[in-house]
Specification:
This protein is of the alpha+beta class and 110 residues long. The protein has helices spanning 2-21, 47-60; strands spanning 29-32, 38-41, 64-68, 75-88, 93-101, 105-109. The chain has one domain. Helices cover 31% and strands 37% of the residues. The protein is globular, with a radius of gyration of 18 Å.
Length: 110
């Protein structure tokens, strides 16, 4: 009987852990850009912009900066926060820095 209770508790813990890794209904799902160092959400942001965000973020060392979009020809203020759990369309989960700003741009960098 005791073995069954322990096995049941372990099974419940495994299910809870797996559920905590799944994105919530409101979580963004990102696509990794070709550089492999940035990700974007759907059609809101181009990889060209995301890769500029990634370069400026690391070069500036700041959490707020201006990044250029080669698609729109505009510069946008971006704000970033670290330790963001990003979910990717290929199923990967990664701790990243989450940057947002501009006109609903959402980028993760690592």
């Amino acid at each position: 009987m005791r073995k069954q209770l322990i096995a049941g508790a372990l099974g419940a813990a495994a299910v809870a852990a797996a559920a905590s890794l799944a994105p919530s209904a409101s979580a963004s799902v990102f696509t990794v850009c070709p550089s492999g160092n940035a990700g974007v959400v759907g059609g809101h942001t181009s990889c060209a912009f995301a890769e500029n965000v990634q370069r400026v973020f690391w070069a500036s060392g700041g959490n707020q900066f201006v990044a250029y979009s080669p698609v729109t020809g505009e510069r946008y203020v971006m704000s970033c926060a670290g330790l963001y759990t990003a979910y990717f369309d290929a199923g990967a989960v990664r701790t990243t820095t989450h940057c947002y700003g501009g006109t609903n741009a959402e980028v993760v960098v690592w």
